[in-house]
Amino acid sequence: MTAAAGPGLAFIAYPKAVSLMPVAPLWAALFFFMLLLLGLDSQFVGVEGFVTGMMDLLPEKYYVRYRREISVAICCLLCFIIDLSMVTQVSRALPGAAAGPGHLHCL
What we know:
By secondary structure, this protein is mainly α. The chain contains 3 helices and no strands. The longest helix has 34 residues, at 24-57. 0% of the residues are buried.
């Protein structure tokens, strides 16, 4: 079975092809390092777009030194806390939550 697109291509077909190349461990490490950098870059774009939009909404009279850096830190902290519910079983401890992990419902 051959993957034509999607995650199967990145995690099944390409590693199989890389294992046939000379110096396969080097190419495999470079490939997964590239995937890591791609994910980080996507995260930077999302955070910067959101923070820029929020900064444009606030008037200049609320200007505080390091306002952008504080806003980015708050955004990243909130995203981290929200994303923890996606990878842990915290939702099982909440009353009225769904039975599966990562299904956090607003109360």
